[in-house]
TrEMBL record, chains A, B, C, D:
One of its GO terms (biological process) is ectoine biosynthetic process. GO terms for molecular function: diaminobutyrate-2-oxoglutarate transaminase activity; diaminobutyrate-pyruvate transaminase activity; pyridoxal phosphate binding. This is Diaminobutyrate--2-oxoglutarate transaminase. It comes from the Bacteria. Pathway: Amine and polyamine biosynthesis; ectoine biosynthesis; L-ectoine from L-aspartate 4-semialdehyde: step 1/3. Belongs to the class-III pyridoxal-phosphate-dependent aminotransferase family. The lineage of its organism: Bacteria, Bacillati, Actinomycetota, Actinomycetes, Kitasatosporales. The keyword Lipid metabolism does not apply. Its EC number is 2.6.1.76. Its cofactor is pyridoxal 5'-phosphate. SUPFAM superfamilies: PLP-dependent transferases. Gene3D superfamilies: Aspartate Aminotransferase, domain 1, Type I PLP-dependent aspartate aminotransferase-like (Major domain). Transmembrane segments: none annotated.
Amino acid sequence: MTITPPALSVFETLESEVRSYCRGWPAVFDRAQGARLTDEDGHSYLDFFAGAGSLNYGHNNPVLKRALIDYIERDGITHGLDMATTAKRAFLETFQNVILRPRDLPYKVMFPGPTGTNAVESALKLARKVKGRESVVSFTNAFHGMSLGSLAVTGNAFKRAGAGIPLVHGTPMPFDNYFDGTVPDFLWFERLLEDQGSGLNKPAAVIVETVQGEGGINVARAEWLRALQELCERQDMLLIVDDIQMGCGRTGGFFSFEEAGIVPDIVTLSKSISGYGLPMSLCLFKPELDIWEPGEHNGTFRGNNPAFVTAAAALDAYWADGRVEQQTKERGLQVEQALLAICAEEPTAQFRGRGLVWGMEFEDPARASAVCARAFELGLLLETSGPQSEVVKLLPPLTITTEELDEGLRTLARCVRETA
Amino acid sequence: MTITPPALSVFETLESEVRSYCRGWPAVFDRAQGARLTDEDGHSYLDFFAGAGSLNYGHNNPVLKRALIDYIERDGITHGLDMATTAKRAFLETFQNVILRPRDLPYKVMFPGPTGTNAVESALKLARKVKGRESVVSFTNAFHGMSLGSLAVTGNAFKRAGAGIPLVHGTPMPFDNYFDGTVPDFLWFERLLEDQGSGLNKPAAVIVETVQGEGGINVARAEWLRALQELCERQDMLLIVDDIQMGCGRTGGFFSFEEAGIVPDIVTLSKSISGYGLPMSLCLFKPELDIWEPGEHNGTFRGNNPAFVTAAAALDAYWADGRVEQQTKERGLQVEQALLAICAEEPTAQFRGRGLVWGMEFEDPARASAVCARAFELGLLLETSGPQSEVVKLLPPLTITTEELDEGLRTLARCVRETA
Amino acid sequence: MTITPPALSVFETLESEVRSYCRGWPAVFDRAQGARLTDEDGHSYLDFFAGAGSLNYGHNNPVLKRALIDYIERDGITHGLDMATTAKRAFLETFQNVILRPRDLPYKVMFPGPTGTNAVESALKLARKVKGRESVVSFTNAFHGMSLGSLAVTGNAFKRAGAGIPLVHGTPMPFDNYFDGTVPDFLWFERLLEDQGSGLNKPAAVIVETVQGEGGINVARAEWLRALQELCERQDMLLIVDDIQMGCGRTGGFFSFEEAGIVPDIVTLSKSISGYGLPMSLCLFKPELDIWEPGEHNGTFRGNNPAFVTAAAALDAYWADGRVEQQTKERGLQVEQALLAICAEEPTAQFRGRGLVWGMEFEDPARASAVCARAFELGLLLETSGPQSEVVKLLPPLTITTEELDEGLRTLARCVRETA
Amino acid sequence: MTITPPALSVFETLESEVRSYCRGWPAVFDRAQGARLTDEDGHSYLDFFAGAGSLNYGHNNPVLKRALIDYIERDGITHGLDMATTAKRAFLETFQNVILRPRDLPYKVMFPGPTGTNAVESALKLARKVKGRESVVSFTNAFHGMSLGSLAVTGNAFKRAGAGIPLVHGTPMPFDNYFDGTVPDFLWFERLLEDQGSGLNKPAAVIVETVQGEGGINVARAEWLRALQELCERQDMLLIVDDIQMGCGRTGGFFSFEEAGIVPDIVTLSKSISGYGLPMSLCLFKPELDIWEPGEHNGTFRGNNPAFVTAAAALDAYWADGRVEQQTKERGLQVEQALLAICAEEPTAQFRGRGLVWGMEFEDPARASAVCARAFELGLLLETSGPQSEVVKLLPPLTITTEELDEGLRTLARCVRETA
């Protein structure tokens, strides 16, 4: 397939230079279904990016679409601030019954503004309020969002520089395996906490991703996460898991931390929580932390009711039993096999991942970009991540068929070969 | 009409204590159309709050609803990051043709995350980057959002305290009429800027609302806004108008600053820009300020395409000619007449406003809450604002009929009388 | 008298460009006595600067000199950290008997590092610790020192820029008469404190100079100071008077705030407290504020015992009775008369002052520098102050004779005439 | 010898609770000579603390005393701001001839306020100004001073808490041997600098002590210092050596970094630079860094001329040849032998040091305090350091005789035995 770059005039003349994905994927997309998008010229693309993890159930999933149209047709509340609505109640009950109760998770549910960064901002505020301390520890190559609170715990130097002010109150610690196993876990962090002369401001909380997506698909081991939870308990710090990209089944279980058997104090969810790509986010926390005053954090669109409708439908359709989790693990094995074969032929690459999130790291960062560029020409949407964009990131919808997955992986193999 | 408070069980047991509006309006809402909501018991409510200004065209506006359902039905892109899509192109072209070009406004358009606070965060980042300074001046009783960057330029002490860190890099200045006309405009601000010994960190920008909604419906005069623009030019500071609540026709013209004849350097829009209550926001700026690097600010849901569809439909339907603006001014006169009559009978109250945003301030703050509580019992949704919640805020949909408006205003009059 | 600029070689080649006074006074000084300095070429200079207020009793005052030499001769402790010494005890007892008790001042005494900025740092730390708040209010054109804590409450933009980090946690308010009496005192400050929506972080303390020396000899009225004290009490903020330059008798009474009849919560002293120009500083505070833990603030040279010796001698010699205060007021009248005459002839100048600190402000800042330059040529040491160095500052030793004072004032008059 | 605790009344009633050393040494000291102090009851104390390193040439050193008295007698300038004086010139020339030139050090000399923390503040300001970055890296258990700028790069949690504001813009890194050699030097630091996703704000400078005095006598190896210098060069960061306590011969050479063969970009000196315990400090830097504007940093007592006189005399008397350095090393060997013997008998203690600064660390921190308390009873002044005050610190005057040193070491041995 050959793609003719369309005239992007209004995007180039009117939209800000800040736009990014559209530069690597110079098409004007029009429709989408499942794992496929179609541009206005009728070209079809297989989606291995899934809205950066926002489309775990595929584009315009028919089950959710039906529920959404029904709701709109019947003039259900669209914009509800934080008013009680029947749609919100249905979501809350479903979330409790399908997600929280079976996992024995005691969380209260907060609806921040419907974006990931807003969920993180609310989590950080709450942790600081509960502990009465300003400092928060994050990890190397973390990504938590672009508003000032979230950006201060984000690692990327380029994004941090955009703040325009010195970002403070956050201290980075080495993520799992940062030194390839040569340094004991938490050696530095724990020593700083225990040494009264270390100069570390005692943190209110630690914020962590179980798998760092933007940071380069860095996978934390279950024992590392457990040790982190124990360290937090021992040192009176709250543990925040930012499950915005890795939650909602991306790694297998609904929450990415289930596998490790930990129960974070605070959890943020967004991206795929609405299931349909509609803006929505949640901040979950243990009941004893719920010391918010009414309205102490708010947001105009926190009651995005159409998203509640698709969210409840997605939970009902996909999480009432364990099929999705099982299928994600199987699809993950399929990816792993393919990457094993690709890397066997390509010694400058290595791969890692969990569930349906995988990364292929190239020694030469330019190679990763070249692979993605070639993939686009061949109708496959792939993106890079990592501090130098050196990692090709695989994030297909969880609902992708084995055939589609196989097709995409074969295209990837071809791209790797052709860019050698 | 008498409302029986419903059993709010799951809201009370599962949702965080942070919830607020639902406490003053103890109903479970189910459907809505135009200026009316219906709860699950079939009670009807007249909406004088309009989603805090997010529903300028009423709930589930039929014209927008049609466009939205058509788009969803045909599997248009739902979640598009910042990819080029046909829906985004249609919005951009419409925004340029219907809004920017007729007003001779040169702005570039940025899509931040789809909430107001995210638009403000991007505006502040850009201003700081352009000027290379950290400090931003805001005004007394300003409200710009709840993430850390926006919160630092927000006035409310209760909301600021929620930050959990000292909020810095912002300095408040007196808003128009803060001293009831006894002090010359900008006396203090200008003197601080000119005095090399004043201790003010030179600001990168000034952020202002033309009418402070959350701050108590404080209306800046056109000449004050013009003088502010001149001060910004003279002192090499960028002027940011936060038009999130007052833009999209709320005060008459599409932008609230049109009447003053000023052209801010940066403008933020959100709330009613999608027209249908869907999350969406824009940051507009003069082309010479567009020094963003690709991806220097981003957000997962910045390409909320269903919102682009309703936004374009709303612009086409309501802004291709000047009818809405004319009608808003007429409806505003209707409100003004009614408030004049109410305040003639109630000497402890005074009112102010512009277009279709009005406030009634009571000497006793408790009275404002009592009026809203009684209004709810009578089926009218009203909220307070102001630093002590001493102002009853009128924010009906722009599309409200004169009859509905009259009905609500009569109910308001009754509430004022009955709470005396 | 004509001065030949000496070869300043080692100063120019080895000392940093940061040096300043030596540029305006290009002589190499060798000896000094009372109000006169002598350079290495034998030229004599009359000192109207007095070490920026550090030499209230003149250079090498014979009474203090005797005590100092005796102490050194007998091998009294020179460096004592915060150990108890007989010299420190003598100072403490004298300070209590001569200064605190007769004025009924209840202060505890702290010895910070022996510089003014260190005293201010300790005052700010203590205020923040006591109140548990970060913010401190200072005034336009305040000067409190050059270390980061003090610099954040200092007004001068040039000096602030030297910090290299954004200075935060301080907010400037208008000093007395900042708007020439056109705005009621504390209108803005009080309104910000009372308005819960003002955006002002509630301050722990207010720091003020009764006469701003570096800021341009701005004299606060007694009623303004009293109103400030009342405002602090009403709003639960500590009142810190920085009496480093204006204390030790400069304005008449030992403390410059005595005349206003106020009792600040915290007072900083330095400059002339040792009397002999030796480094020493004190931080005084009400006993109930003394919540310091042992060693929570310290400093290597806080026990500069030779300074304790001269300090005690100075208090004994000059403050056991009211003669100095009386004499300072008389000398002040002499200055006032002379300035009145000078300004009668020079309409672009105006003057102000109290006790023996006076300023002459010129419309054209260059004129003030020209006056000082000419004065140096004529053997008179004068310096400028104010945000644009537009004020000629008169700060002669308190012990100056009427003849010397007259001589200097006549020279000043001549300089004003000759620079017209 | 038995000491009767004297009545400390005025210290207890008038002086602030912040006082500390006087609590451990409950005597009122009166006179001192060389390594001995005498209290008012005539008891004599051997000084192994030397004014925290401010009295390297002993108390009231007769050579310096003579020069000082002569200067005072002849009415030399006492207080000179930053005016050129004959005393300052003599110091500058001596410093250049005796210290800088023989060591081929190119430094410019700045006179900050005459305390260590002021020197550090000026060093940090300059580094930030030169590099245009806010962040500075310090090390675990560093001590740099108590004003806000210095405190932000100081490790001790108790002292940091005294700031009353969150201390930011500083990041601690592990000092040499922090992990007992199990982790490669600078592994974490270098990785953070190289990883664009690490979250570390790029530092303007690194500030380090070659031997951490307050931190517990932690001795950096020469190769570690060299590697640090190389890292700074490679990463475009300035290297600041804080030589306030370890400079002026404490470790052997005049500068403590000479042995490592490095040339820091900026050096701070204070404590023993005046030689006589008089307040004085210097900030030295490479000429190309001297971008200060005149007066951009200043301080009332930066021209403490009596200190210049004793400083020049000390340099002349002790540094014109290499005898002091040689002698310090010999005395250091004497200490090392004694500590070796003591620790051979006391397995819970270990020791470390360089030149004439040594520490004995006890497993049980209370033991270190007990040793010091017993030492005081026996007429020996000893202090603890380290994050838990677990290290007994030996800091005798460099001019101590072998007999005095032996006496003190025997007393120390006795104290260790008697507190077992």
